Amino acid sequence: MHVELVRVDNAFHFEALGTSGVAQHMDAATDIGGHNAGARPMEMLLMGLAGCSAIDVVLILQKQKQVIDDFRMKVDGLREKDATPSPFKKIHITYLLKGQLDEVKVKRAIDLSMDKYCSATAQFRPSTDITYSFEIQA
């Protein structure tokens, strides 16, 4: 895996390009001179965690012949307060699914992702308390 980062402006706007060839933009908060032209790097970490687990869960549910009409996630991260660096201390993930879904299969898919398959979760686990819940919406 390889990533390149290029500064876009004279402040804190960067464009990152990975092996996939898809550009992602990052920027700093306006209160330190950023222009809000991209996600914050720590937001991208949470996005990566969500994406990693989402791919696992969808793959597992597809293999179980579950019908997913809608799939969303909310990820809330709590960082160390008044610390530098300020790593995530706690993360809570809420999976929101809609479709013809068996609750037991959904729970099992999420558990497998979080406990066995998701590499992003493994990256966070040694130092971060990760909890999760799910809702199957009508």
From TrEMBL:
Query: Which Gene3D superfamilies does the entry link to?
Result: 3.30.300.20
- Segments spanning the bilayer are none
Domain of life, source organism: Bacteria
Enumerate the InterPro entries for this protein: KH_dom-like_a/b, OsmC/Ohr_fam, OsmC/Ohrsf
Q: Tell me which positions the record assigns to the signal sequence.
A: none
Q: Name one Pfam family in it.
A: OsmC
Q: Which PANTHER family match?
A: PROTEIN YHFA
Question: What protein name applies here?
Answer: Disulfide bond formation regulator
Where does this protein come from, organism-wise?
Spirosoma radiotolerans
